[in-house]
Amino acid sequence: MVKRAGPIVLAVFLLTGCGAHSIQELKGGEGLKSGGHAAHGPARASGGTAVPGRDYNPADVMFLQMMMAHNGQGVRLARLAPDRAAREEVRTLAAAIATTQETEAASMSERLIGWRRPATARADEHAAHGGMPGVGEEEIAAVADAAPADFEKKFLNMMIAQQDDAIQLARMEVATGLNAEVKAMAERVDASRSAQIKQMLALLDQ
Q1: Hey, what's the signal peptide range on this chain (predicted)?
Q2: Are 168 and 133 spatial neighbours (Cβ–Cβ below 8 Å)?
Q3: pTM for this one?
Q4: Is 48 inside any structural domain?
Q5: Strand partners for 13
């Protein structure tokens, strides 16, 4: 895993359809550029063609559906920190992440309801786009079961991977979506996750 001294060499593992970014790549910005995971699953999200009579397209719908599920994973991870993290900075950051992602998910759900679209896409639709990026049950369990001395390192590494996936989903929405409000939401996701990753990398270096 990550060493506190010297270069950070952990490869941040991502779920279905995506490869892995190293923390060094993220520190250099490579994992946050449009290349990154955009070359994998989310990059294949359909877009461009508007839904007749509506101001959105399939990319807008898929972004909202995937981000709702992704935020649910992030909230589960974040809620592990209050009782386990040693540092107040980590606990505060985790609380902020949980609040932000819960608020986002509620807004995304309202928009999908307004469009009369389902909250989740069919499994085969996600598969066609490379799979749902994020962390799985085993990864969440590994963080939850970490020894106290290892928790923060594992938590921060996993959350960095989670937030980087959100950035790739958001950038694909900006590139292929149609609805102006959803694209603005994606830009906010990009900005907030990028700032959080920067903060978490700093915490790993301490």
Answers
A1: none
A2: yes
A3: 0.74
A4: no
A5: 20
